[in-house]
Structures are given as structure tokens and as C-alpha cells.
Amino acid sequence: MIDPRQIAAVALDFDGTLIGPGHQIDARAVATLRRAAAAGIAVCTASGRPPGGQLEILTANGLGPASGVFAALCCDERSVWLRDGAGFVPHRPWNDAVDAEWDALLPVARELLREARQALTAAGYALRQHVPDELQRERGMVDFAADSEAAAVATAAWLRPWIAAREPRLQVTQNWHLVVLLPASVGKGRAVAAMAAALGLAPAQLLAVGDRQNDTTMLDGTCGLRAAAVGNAIPEIRALVAAQGGYQATAELGAGVAEIVEWVLAARAEGIPGAGP
Question: Does 90 reside within a domain?
Fold first, then answer.
């Protein structure tokens, strides 16, 4: 059971959790996150998007750096950026170590993905490159885009054992129609735990909120983080959160984020523990 009184930070997945259609954030979520930040809760992201892409969406919804709401960003499922005055700066030495490892792995990852794409294409999968070559070092990933989420799930299921047998320093994640190859040392769980440490918090003081497969490592307890899911989370994610005694919102997308954060704020104000629905 999670004691919401112990939560000092929240880390929010972006697509399918905080943001909805048209990159809009629910007005209730915006207001609730402002309240949370004013109450001393460190509001953070946990996204596969790069920092510039995240800040563009947050700013358009009134939550950019000038608002002072977000304390940190987890970007590309691997790097950590901390608020510094009117902007965000990379968290070193975490980011430097992540970058150095990727520099060594990138040629290997590219070649393996090329071989895998040939085999998958021969097996009837329709795949295209998503992150262009010139951005793969900066983003810390190589990837495929499938023509549907179902096709991406099937592609990832094929690719995981194939990669594990050839290069255990790499892992496969999947989100919506994307299938991504990352270093095994990163992923949302480890990056968010590093973000918590950078904020001076234990992992158990941070509540991670997600909805889909690439949120698994921050919701399954392996990194010591607390877990919550929005109402539109896929069944596998809701099961993970339930197993951790986490909060499962009934509302979807940003409204679900607001429901979860309001639960934390109410418990902190009243001094009442509880795991929620």
C-alpha cells in the first residue's frame, strides 16, 4: 500500500498520460499541478520525448519554465534535466555517463537494427526508421515505426529475444507504434530513480504515473518507485500498478493525472494514508 503522505515528487509520462489529443493538457491537470508545485511537491516528467519537444508542449499549455511548476524532466527514456532559474540544465554526471555508454553502443545498435529490419521485413512486417541517423546520438536511441500499435507490439515481441541473444547491453522498449533500442542501463525506471536522487529524494518518495509498455520499469517496483496509472492505461500496466499497491485513477489522460495528484495533496493536508481505488 502506498502512503501518499510520503510522496514528495511525481513523475508523469507524457503521451497518453499527461497530454491528450492535439498535445492539449486538461485544464484541471494544469491547475492541480500548479497547486502541487506550490505545496512543495517536485513535479517532473518521464517521457520518451526530447527536452525541446517536452518544453514546447508544456509552454503551450501554460506549464513552461516561466511557470516554475516543473522541477525536472526525464527525456528520451534516459537523460535527466533539472530546473535552473528560467530553464533546465543537464544533470551531470548521470547524463555524461549515459552519453559515453551510448557512444560505444551506437554502431552496434545500428548494425543490429539493420539486420533485424531485414529479417522482419522478410517475415512480412512493414517498418520504417523514425529517429533519423543524424539525431540518433543526441536522442540516445535507434528505432522502428510500425504501421499500428498492434504491429509494434508484435515487432517488439519478436525483437526482444533476438537482441538479448546478440547484445545484452541493449534492451527493447515499445510505446504506441514505436519500437526502440536503448542501452540496458537506462529506461524510464532507472532514469527516474536518478532524477529522484538528483532532487535529494529516495525512490519511494516519488510517484510515477504512466499508461503503456515503456512505463513498465518505473511502475513494476524494480527501481523502488511508487506507482500510479491513469484510467486509460492498458491492462498490463493496471495489473502492474495493482501489484504494487498503487493508485489506479478512474479518469483518463490529464484528468486522471489530476485525480492522482489531488489524492496525494488531500492525504498530505489531512494526514490520512491510503492506496486509493
Answer: no
Domain end call among 183, 215, 236: 183
**What's the whole-model pTM score?**
0.91
pLDDT tens for each residue of 202-231 = 999 999 999 999 999 999 999 999 999 999
Whether 84 is in a domain gets the answer no
pLDDT < 50 positions in the chain? 275
Q: CA–CA distance from 190 to each of 99, 114, 202, 231 (Å)?
A: 15, 27, 13, 24
Strand partners, 45: 12
- For residues 106 and 179, membership in a common domain is answered with yes
| DSSP letter, residue 97 | H
Which one, of 16, 77, 75, 34, lies nearest residue 256 by Cα? 16
3-state secondary structure of 2: coil
Closest CA to 52 of 115, 146, 138, 114: 138
- Name the nearest CA neighbour of 33 among 271, 276, 259, 232: 259
